[in-house]
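Internal tracking record. Fields below are filled automatically when a chain is submitted to the structure queue. Please do not edit lines marked as system-generated. If the sequence contains nonstandard residues, flag them in the REMARKS field before resubmitting.
Queue: standard
Priority: normal
Entity type: single polypeptide chain
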Amino acid sequence: MKKLAILGAMTAAGLSAGVVSAATLDDVKARGKLNCGVTTGLVGFAAPNANGEWEGFDVGVCRAVAAAVLGDPTAVEFVPTTGKTRFTALASGEIDMLARNTTWTFSRDVDLGFEFVGINYYDGQGFMVPKELGVSSAKELDGATVCIQTGTTTELNLADFFRANNISYEPVPIETNAEAQPLYLEGACDVYTTDASGLAATRAAFENPGDHVVLPEIISKEPLGPLVRHGDNQWGDVVRWTLNALIAAEELGVTSANIAEMSASAGSNPEINRLLGTEGTLGEMLGLDAGWAKNAIMAGGNYGELFEKNIGENTPIGLARGLNALWTEGGLLYTPPFR
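SYSTEM-GENERATED OUTPUT FOLLOWS
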């Protein structure tokens, strides 16, 4: 989700970002554990299961980075964050990376002093309403009460959309998705607005998902991805190329089922060989073992496997690949070459 830090959080982030040690990779190796910031709970993306174990699409990115750096996808401490706390947690060094649904914007990249290492989900803001309202378009929501996470780009987009369409609304301020769900279900607000992926995940958790509909309008661009602190280029490269490895693996046909066989010896495709560490020195360039990418892919599968397992069409979330398909399949996912 696309929270803008409130002024206090922005100030804290700006002040503390410069004093955090730049050697994050060394810190993670010495600690033997990756501290990864996630949402407070969004099924399909990041949420603890019945056993208290974190699962989800964003969790998979954390585990892939831990596997690449430490050789162990379970060596992760998941740190729940809200829209107000996430940037301060990253800037202060409480977490090594932020993997929750966070939109890449100019101010977050430049003014807050963070570095987005890539996009792992192309999204946009939408609206969910009870089917019984009989609403088929967001333009029919004049006078509606809207559950909205305050201090966010979601809030700004909402105001712009209603103003542009000359309709009014009454905001019902909330801080987390968990807080929004009961308010929406109890009728405290007519509408819930956030990223369309978040709406799908929220709707899937309802006892009767079919009683609610996501309206067709998508009113913003929300490129979501992991981020790290400015000024630590080596760590940024590690997280960036781990994400790229998951995308490249899908494009190259490397899966959790065949990776052991493909990495046993060098094959005929040089890029696969470099990706899996059977030739070249890519791992050494990153300060990692030769098998870093192999470990990352084995942690939960390639990008497509992570998508289908956690949020794909055969899950309760039911998201189609859409823009998040590979560039060769009509989507936007595209990774630089491994050479």
